[in-house]
Structures are given as C-alpha cells and as structure tokens.
Amino acid sequence: MQPFTTLSGPAMPMIEDDINTDQIAPLQLAKGLSPDWGELLFKRQRMNADGSANDHVLNRLQYQKPAILLANENFGCGSSRESAVWCLTGVGIRCVIARTIADIFRENCLLNGLLPIELSGEAMGRLQALVTKIDGAQPFCVDLPEQIVCAPGGETFVFDISGSDKTRLIEGLDEIGLTMKHEAEITAWEAQMFADMPWVQESRDRRR
Q1: Cα separation, 84 vs 101, whole angstroms
Q2: Which of 21, 133, 174, 191 is the 20 to 30 Å CA partner of 122?
C-alpha cells in the first residue's frame, strides 16, 4: 500500500449528502474484468445518455487531476464495494473530507491508502466555502503527521484520527503489515504456549 504523509493539489467540491458507492463506482457500466477505474468514477452523473460529457464537476478542466474530494454528510454509504475507493484513487484522489463518512467505506479507504477525514460544524462550513470559492485555482494541502488541512490563504483545519489508523497510513501498512509489526511478540507467545501446553504442538505435528 502506498504510504500517506502529505498531499497537495486541487480540492474538488461535491458538497452533497448521501453520495453512495453505486454512484461513485457504477460497476454495471464496467467493461471487462480489469476496468479503467478512474474512467468509471461517477460515470452515470458525468455522462449524457449519448455518451458525451456534461457539466459535472469532474469534467471541468481544473479538476482533471483532483487530489482531495470535499463532500457533506454520509459519504460512501450504500454497498460495501471496495471499488469505490479504487475509482477515487484512479483519478488521483487520496483524501476525502466530509462531515460524516460511512463506516465500511472508511475502512476501505484505510486499506487502500486513502485518507478519510471527518470535519464538522463551523470549521467544515468555512472549508466548504473556501473550496468552492477557490474552485481548483490553487492547491489545498493535507498533512497527516500534523493532522491539519491547509487552505491557500494560510487558514488551517485540525482533524482527528486514531493513532492506529494514522500509523497504518503513514507506514503504508495493510492488516497483514500491521500484524507483522508484532512478529516478535507473536513468536514469544507461541513459544510460551507450546511450553505450557506441549500437546498442542504434538497435535499440530501429527496433522502435517
């Protein structure tokens, strides 16, 4: 998994509630077994019936390579499809900021190196206003070690994240990688268990 420390780039506003994973990743429109995930992102919303592009925010020139997506309440709700995250990273988005983020989608983000940030209240209102006003003309920055989002004018927004989630993103660790950080403790525990209960080792050896 690609580590995440800092990020800089356009912040794309999609300030809506209940954007679901079927909208993000309309798999019914996927072509073949290995689709272009970036091309699939919000395809129903940004394409006309005849296949031409409409005025969806993703079709605007300044958001051809977005880094951050800004939404509102309950982003990523719906089915548990991990492909919703793949579609976002397929166009370069590595951070989603919303007032609330659906739990399963949030976990899928963490498993794929995408930083999910929940920011609420008046601070989120200010950030939404800034992103809308700047409209992709200047980059926003996200600093995970410092846990801040920086606007072009210098205003900063502090966000919370658990220590374990922060570590797994900074170090680029999936669940197996996190487990292997404790390899020494696991080995010591197994050695002690087999010393205390040798019949467990004997039973395992017989099954081989």
Answers
A1: 13
A2: 21
- Stretch 162-182: mean pLDDT: 81
Q: Which whole-number Å values give the CA distances from 102 to 34, 42, 82, 98, in the listed order? A: 26, 18, 13, 10
Specify whether the CB–CB gap between 75 and 98 falls below 8 A.
Answer: yes
The pTM of the full predicted model, rounded to 2 decimals, is 0.85
- Residue closest to 42 by CA, chosen among 12, 3, 80, 72: 12
The b/e string for 93-123 (b: 16+ C-beta within 10 A; e otherwise) is bbbbbbbbbbebbbbbbbebbbbbbbbeeee
Tell me the one-letter amino acid at 105.
F
**Which burial class, exposed, middle or buried, applies to 87 when counting CB atoms under 10 A from its CB (0-12, 13-18, 19+)?**
buried
Q: Which residues pair with 11 in a beta bridge?
A: 68
| pLDDT tens per residue across span 33-70 | 678 999 999 999 999 988 899 999 999 999 999 999 99
74/98 Cα distance (integer angstroms): 8
Long-range pairs for 151-156: beta carbons < 8 A, 24 or more residues apart:
151/127, 155/126, 155/130
Please answer whether residues 62 and 135 qualify as being in contact, where contact means their C-beta atoms are separated by less than 8 angstroms. yes
pLDDT recorded at residue 29: 85
